[in-house]
From TrEMBL:
Bilayer topology: Peripheral membrane protein
NCBIfam families: ATPsyn_F1gamma
Protein name: ATP synthase gamma chain
UniProtKB keywords: ATP synthesis, Cell membrane, CF(1), Hydrogen ion transport, Ion transport, Membrane, Transport
Gene Ontology cellular component terms for the protein in this record: plasma membrane; proton-transporting ATP synthase complex
GO biological process, one term: proton motive force-driven plasma membrane ATP synthesis
Gene this chain is encoded by: atpG
Amino acid sequence: MAENLKALRRRLRTIRNTKQITRAMEMVSAAKLRRAQNALFAGRPYASKLTDVLARLSASGTVAHPLLAQRELRQRWLVVVTADRGLAGAFNAQIIKQAEQFLRENPENVALVCIGKKGFDYFRTKKWQIAWAVTDLNARISSQRANEIADRLMESFLNEETDEVLLLYNKFISTLVYRPALEPILPLRAITGQETETRSSVREYLLEPSPDAVLQALLPRFVRSKIFIMLAETFTAEHSARMVAMSGATRNCEELTDKLTLRLNKVRQAAITKEIIEIVSGAEALKA
């Protein structure tokens, strides 16, 4: 019985220490979530309006740009965006699952670009080719790093290392909801054409020096903006998922603490009752 009491006290102490850790991680994730949300919500209007302008400029089909070129699909890149750390529920698992499903459906001429350590650590042990990886972002939204990734993707596309680039990432919906999103990024014709179909109202823009020159300057900016918004969506969803996961872990620790405290009290009471019975029985035996 004494051993049981000692084991229960040790387990109770461990759970209380774990609860302090999960609560601290929840508070840190909540603070990072607010900053990531601010960056995401500030960037969305710019990206949306830029997409609108590019869709209308390219609707005529008279503009020629290497980023709009549609080539024969000899090589495709799938950009898989995961977190660098775990403890975020199903955040990484569902992206990896979606990526594996895509690779099974398209087994030939597909290479991976892994952004995030979790995805890279998983796929480097598999049979699929990894073109390159970025594993040092640490869930920090940086326009400089987003531009570096976008420029490398555009350079690879222009050098015909790949003929199509797809983005697979978690899209932030709300604090409790995020969904996997698979979107084309290069060539840009697929994006601008899709956006044109979804716009019902038509506006005419007067542009200087010419629509072609404006479009030539805006297309690289659009790719950089798209990558930045993708990273912002991913990191916001990551902090949200980790905050929710740590909140659930903290609640589980509280429930376990209550159950173990009750169990500890019962065991201690049983031990005391047994000692009292032994004392009383011994006294009665001496009297007899």
